């Protein structure tokens, strides 16, 4: 699909520091034309930094790049485009108020004009949409599109620019199961057509299935490059953390007999959500599964009062939450860890400590956030329990790696010691080792008596973590499954093709 053949890439001695702290050092890496090259490592290992250097989003302090043996300077995204490199970052790089069509051909406006080219662009986009199999409306405004579709727009833009090297930073983290498969198939097609793909992902099975070779980074250093067919998740994890670790999920403790119902919802309705009933007891973890658009996040928002239900009630300890809003929910001991760390959870310009402390303080308080020593200790303990790794704890949270931002979001709500914890996608963007830590944390909180409701697109994770999994389809509960149910049964229920009898 690319107009020119991809170059062979040689990265030599690349390094990067922030305020004197080295986050990437002396990276030597060769990538062959048309190769799918996986990049794995723990949160903060330097994967995004390396991709951003390749994509011209940041400048390396040391070393250089050559393409087909010739040194190239990629000092800006413009340089990268010129050399046929396209970066699809975690942050996204679309203009929200513009249409899909305008975003895809953004950089071309200065070179072309008039109706003829507009028509040609439209035709070209239709062709690309057909080849990729995406379902995107060219005239839709980008800010109204789900994040997975926005990513498709970025891929379309890369292809429209004739990218020969596409670097993708955790592209499947925002996708549902079948969308992931489609994207992996597209990656294979692109590579077969000669495009080089560099893929960062925490899903090791996925990287193993699609990549030719995989490079492991640890603490800013390149540890190994392995052939995908000759390695395993276990070996990769060993290199990632520098030791053999057990990445098995912990089992939740059984819910004690007679444990009281802490959270109940009866007949919840609003928009997509159409009659959700649920009960969660003290010490119990209820998973909510469903496809994108099944009403999972919306149900959590109704439970929290972020949206007010048009019908139905939410009860905590048997008492109906009147005037249900986040304020009344929090007063009753309910906390929500939202899906989007940027839009709903974190103040990006503030430090980890300030962000973690923020939730425990009244909204009216101004000035420095972390004052009381007891609070400082609590913040420190929680940040440690979820293993937030920041080079400088006082630095703004936007300078943390994506996975560490996710952990900070989680920590923020734990300081409130809620009675009911609602969690949306708790391990998105989190590395395998940190994922088990978060699982231990959640099962530990439940063992201490918290009632937990957890939404996750990863069915296996949900089945491992929860006592029961409630499946939603088109906003309605369609079944409830105990631990030990096979993921296929739950997926079939989510799709509406029942294979197993729900309990
Ligand atoms: N602008 C910045 N200022 C200071 N430090 C930064 C900045 N950007 C990144 N870092 C630090 O560089 C290190 C590497 O971050 P990077 O985002 O490359 O990690 P990653 O491997 O992609 O992690 P993740 O899996 O969590 O996305 C981290 O310690 C991060 O805090």
UniProtKB/TrEMBL annotation:
<keyword id="KW-0677">Repeat</keyword>
<keyword id="KW-1278">Translocase</keyword>
<dbReference type="InterPro" id="IPR003593">
    <property type="entry name" value="AAA+_ATPase"/>
</dbReference>
<keyword id="KW-1003">Cell membrane</keyword>
<dbReference type="InterPro" id="IPR027417">
    <property type="entry name" value="P-loop_NTPase"/>
</dbReference>
<feature type="domain" description="ABC transporter">
    <location>
        <begin position="9"/>
        <end position="244"/>
    </location>
</feature>
<keyword id="KW-0813">Transport</keyword>
<dbReference type="InterPro" id="IPR017871">
    <property type="entry name" value="ABC_transporter-like_CS"/>
</dbReference>
<keyword id="KW-0762">Sugar transport</keyword>
<keyword id="KW-0547">Nucleotide-binding</keyword>
<dbReference type="InterPro" id="IPR003439">
    <property type="entry name" value="ABC_transporter-like_ATP-bd"/>
</dbReference>
<dbReference type="InterPro" id="IPR050107">
    <property type="entry name" value="ABC_carbohydrate_import_ATPase"/>
</dbReference>
<protein>
    <submittedName>
        <fullName>Sugar ABC transporter ATP-binding protein</fullName>
    </submittedName>
</protein>
<keyword id="KW-0067">ATP-binding</keyword>
<keyword id="KW-0472">Membrane</keyword>
<feature type="domain" description="ABC transporter">
    <location>
        <begin position="242"/>
        <end position="499"/>
    </location>
</feature>
<dbReference type="GO" id="GO:0005524">
    <property type="term" value="F:ATP binding"/>
</dbReference>
<dbReference type="Pfam" id="PF00005">
    <property type="entry name" value="ABC_tran"/>
</dbReference>
């Amino acid at each position: 699909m690319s107009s020119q053949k991809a170059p062979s890439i040689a990265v030599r001695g690349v390094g990067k520091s922030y305020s004197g702290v080295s986050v990437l050092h002396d990276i030597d890496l060769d990538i062959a034309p048309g190769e799918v090259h996986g990049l794995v490592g723990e949160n903060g290992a330097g994967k995004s930094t390396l991709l951003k250097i390749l994509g011209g989003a940041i400048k390396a302090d040391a070393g250089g790049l050559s393409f087909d043996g010739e040194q190239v300077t990629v000092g800006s995204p413009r340089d990268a485009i010129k050399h046929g490199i396209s970066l699809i970052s975690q942050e996204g790089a679309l203009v929200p108020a513009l249409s899909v069509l305008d975003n895809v051909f953004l950089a071309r406006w200065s070179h072309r004009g008039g109706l003829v080219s507009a028509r040609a662009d439209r035709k070209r986009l239709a062709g690309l949409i057909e080849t990729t199999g995406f379902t995107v409306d060219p005239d839709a405004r980008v800010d109204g599109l789900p994040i997975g579709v926005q990513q498709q727009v970025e891929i379309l833009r890369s292809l429209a620019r004739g990218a020969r090297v596409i670097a993708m930073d955790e592209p499947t983290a925002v996708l549902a199961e079948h969308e992931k498969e489609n994207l992996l198939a597209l990656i294979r097609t692109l590579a077969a057509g000669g495009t080089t793909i560099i893929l960062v992902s925490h899903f090791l099975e996925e990287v193993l299935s699609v990549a030719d070779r995989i490079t492991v980074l640890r603490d800013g250093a390149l540890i190994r490059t392995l052939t995908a067919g000759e390695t395993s998740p276990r070996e990769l994890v060993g290199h990632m953390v520098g030791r053999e670790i057990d990445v098995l999920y912990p089992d939740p403790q059984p819910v004690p007999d007679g444990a009281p119902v802490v959270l109940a919802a009866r007949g919840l309705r609003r928009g997509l959500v159409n009659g959700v009933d649920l009960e969660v007891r003290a010490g119990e973890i209820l998973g909510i599964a469903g496809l994108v658009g099944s009403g999972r996040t919306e149900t959590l928002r109704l439970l929290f009062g972020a949206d007010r239900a048009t019908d139905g009630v939410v009860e905590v300890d048997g008492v109906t939450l009147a005037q249900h809003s986040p304020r009344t929910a929090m007063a009753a001991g309910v906390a929500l860890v939202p899906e989007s760390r940027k839009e709903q959870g974190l103040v990006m310009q503030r430090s980890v400590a300030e962000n973690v402390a923020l939730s425990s303080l009244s909204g009216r308080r101004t000035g420095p956030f972390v004052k009381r020593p007891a609070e400082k200790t609590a913040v420190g303990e929680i940040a440690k329990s979820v293993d937030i790794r920041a080079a400088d704890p006082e630095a703004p949270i936007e300078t943390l790696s994506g996975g560490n931002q996710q952990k900070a979001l989680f920590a923020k709500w734990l300081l409130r010691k809620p009675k009911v914890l609602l969690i949306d996608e708790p391990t998105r963007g989190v590395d395998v080792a940190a994922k088990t830590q978060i699982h231990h944390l959640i099962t530990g909180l439940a063992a201490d008596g918290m009632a937990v409701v957890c939404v996750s697109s990863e069915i296996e994770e949900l089945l491992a973590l929860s006592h029961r999994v409630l499946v939603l389809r088109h906003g309605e509960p369609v079944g409830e499954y105990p631990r030990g149910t096979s993921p296929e049964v739950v997926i079939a229920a989510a799709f509406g093709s029942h294979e197993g009898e729900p309990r």
